[in-house]
Design goal:
The chain has 7 helices and 9 strands. The chain starts with a strand and ends in an 8-residue tail after the last helix. It has helices spanning 15-25, 50-58, 77-84, 96-103, 120-129, 135-144, 162-182, and strands at residues 3-8, 29-31, 34-38, 45-47, 62-68, 71-76, 88-93, 110-117, 153-156. It has one domain (3-34, 79-182): Rossmann fold (3-Layer(aba) Sandwich), CATH 3.40.50. It is globular, with a radius of gyration of 16 Å. By secondary structure, it is an alpha/beta fold. A 5-stranded parallel sheet has the order 2-7-1-8-9, sandwiched between helices. A 4-stranded mixed sheet has the order 4-3-6-5, with helices on both faces. 41% of the residues lie in helices and 25% in strands. It is an enzyme of class 2 (transferase). GO terms for molecular function: GMP kinase activity. InterPro entries: P-loop_NTPase (IPR027417).
Amino acid sequence: MTRGVILYGPPAAGKDTVDAALRALSDDYVHFARIKVGEGRREGYRITTSAALQELRERGGVVWENSRYGATYAVDRPGLIDALGHGVPVLHLGQVEAVDAVATAVSGARWVVVSLWCPEDVAVDRLRQRGSADVAERLEAWRATPELGEADLRFDTSMVEPRDAARRIDAHVRKACTLADSFPPDSPRG
């Protein structure tokens, strides 16, 4: 069974940190690099051009995209399929609609959805500590990120250590995989 992890939350909620803790816990976990068109941070993204992204859109390969911080970010179906075939991809999202789009993008994939959050003052401290030049804009995005209605797990990252969150996520991923293997594919739980 193919499986992945969606880390949902506002900026500075701990998506990068929990992702790194999952990858340190097991080589099964791989960071899913979203596509990015624009300036700013390049690490953790697949940088491309506007023309290449448009071509992907025209082929129906874009599952979700959004624009923020002067850049466009996209999740692509070919990238998801490839990542699901090579491990347990860990995908960072901050929009409720994106979670739904990704969760239904690849037939047979099971996504464990994890909602991450921290208090605003903690987010501000984290943004400053990592040297973000656009703290005000990221704080605006933090405030605009709605709570996720349904999630398999929820963590206030100011109250739980990243490796503890990673262990609980890993246990949930393994349990979800075992449960799904126990039911036929057309079963509601499969």
